[in-house]
Structure formats: structure tokens, C-alpha cells
Design a protein that fits this description.
alpha+beta; 3 domains; elongated; binds zinc ion
Amino acid sequence: MLTPADKKDAPIYQLKVTLTGSRPPIWRRIQISGETHLHKLHRILQIVMGWEDYHLHQFVVGERYYGTSQPDFDLEMEVKDERTVTLGGVAPAVGQKFTYEYDFGDSWEHEILVEKILKPAPGVRYPVCIKGKRACPPEDCGGIWGYESFLEAIRDPNQPEHEEMLEWIGESFDPEAFDLEAVNRELAALRSDGDEGEEERDRPRFGRLPPRYAFALNPYEDVRFSKCPQCYEPTRLRKFALLIYIERFGLLSQGKTCRCCPGCELLIVHQDELEAQLATGLWERAPEVIGNDYFVVGTVERKIWRRGLRQPQALSFEELRRHTADFKTILEIEYEPGGWYPSGRSNES
Ligand SMILES: [Zn+2]
């Protein structure tokens, strides 16, 4: 009946990652859940390419930038928080491309192409690297041009920098080497520390208050959870100020009557009602974002929310954060025969 949203069978994206300008090409082919957030994709790209992750990075999707360097959720900033968007959100279709840039000094650009969108294969654990060619250039070798000079120098004993470069790299360097198994061992290690706890930590955390409540959107218009789907105790109706992040718009707080199970600390909200309220609220301010993906972040303390309503400008992001508690878990309501408790009442507003 209730399962964590990240447990469902998300589509698998097959990506080809190519180091821009590399000739012959340095590339990897990976398969990864479309629900992977970009900050996690960054960690995966570091592993599959062979980088050491000690420089800055960013994603460039069309004219949008996603990275870590700016405060979370700050709408004025040009660089959006990479934890707030998923792979499927930025590149939803086969054939789409975007860029991953690593090390703004050497400026390693990687073209990421969505080659296929697949159903998860039984027994396969994702992310997985299925193929790749050639070694990752050494960090700090000066970008793609520097790498070419480096290769020339180590290949040719007559080059003036031959000895110096061999000493710098400190070992033999084979530009054709790529160890698929080693890469997949590292991905497996990332997965094993990417258990539930990790997923929890990986969720974008906005609020400074300790996380509270499990949250579920009820997608069924005619089903009222008058009893809790977890403990079967009667639920109560209670109004909360929900903080909602809407893609290409930003944060919005919205008062909403929720079904609440105090014992389970569970809130259930009718999806259709919430969406209708959001659409009404946005109709004059930003009609173009109606229908965009959104994400219910957590609850805002009512007193601060009311103050924000009276004087929206008075409420800074930092203030909003201090009075917001993220949800502990986002649950998904799934059909299970016999598991419904339609009350027939519709006194929720
Ligand atoms: Zn309950």
C-alpha cells in the first residue's frame, strides 16, 4: 500500500559520456536510473571517467546551469542546485544531450547523450558501466590540449619534456587502458553506501528544523483515507502549510488540509486538490509554470507562514529555511485490493 517513491521501477537511462575534443574518443556507456539526481550523477561520472573529484563541476543543460556552488533554492542565482533535479527531469527523451563540465581551470567538458530509455532488467543493479574506451587524462594536465602535449611528451624520448612528464605522472601511463571491472567495483561500493540512509541524505534538504512526517500524495480522487493505510487508526483532518518546490518557478508555501495519522506521523494529501489550489494561486503570477513538475518539500511553521503571507517580501529564504521541516520520507500510494478505506465524505478543502 505505501512504498517509498524511490523503490518503484524507474526507467533506466543509457547514457554515452564522451570527453569533448578527445581524439581518439575517450568515452563510457552507462545505465542509470532516470530518477538519479544530478549531484549523484556527478559522483557516478567521476567514477566511470576516472577523475578524482577535487575540482569544481557543473552541468549545463541548454541555457541552464546546475551545480553546488550556490545557496540552495536561491532563485536569484544563475546556478541551480543540482540536488533538486533528476536526470529524467533535465533530459527526458532519447537523443537529448547536455554537458558535464569538470575543473573550470582545465575545463574538461563531457557530452552526455541519452542513447536509450529502458525498463530495468531483472537482477541488474544500477548504476552500471557497460562499456568504455581509453584512459582518463591525468588531473591537472592542462585540459584537452595539455593532454595531447603530455601524450606526445611521454611517447617520444626526444621531446624536451619527456623526462619531466614521466616524473610528473610517477608511473607508466597507458592512454588506451580502461578497466571496466574496476569501474563497476567502485559503482557497487557507491551503491552499497547508497542504501536507504544514503537516499535519505541525498534528498534535497531545505529546512533547518529536524525532518518531520512521512508524506504521501493520494492520486485517487474518490478515495478518502479516513483510516490510516499503515496502522488502520482513524485519521484526522488538519491544516498544514506545505512548502512546495515547482520546477522553473521555485518555492511556494501553500496552506492545505491534510489527512493526518498522529501515531504514524503520516500526512496524506489529495493530489488533485493540491494541484487545483496551486494552479489557482499561480494563475496570475506565473501561469506558464502550471503543469510543471513539483515536489512537496515539507511543512512550514504556521506562524511564520502567516507572517510570510501578510508580508511576502519580509520572509527571506534563510528565514523560511529556519522554520521549515523537510519530510522524513516521501511515500507512494499504490493500489492494493482490500487496502482502501473510502469514507464517502468529501469535507476536505
Ligand atoms: Zn497510522
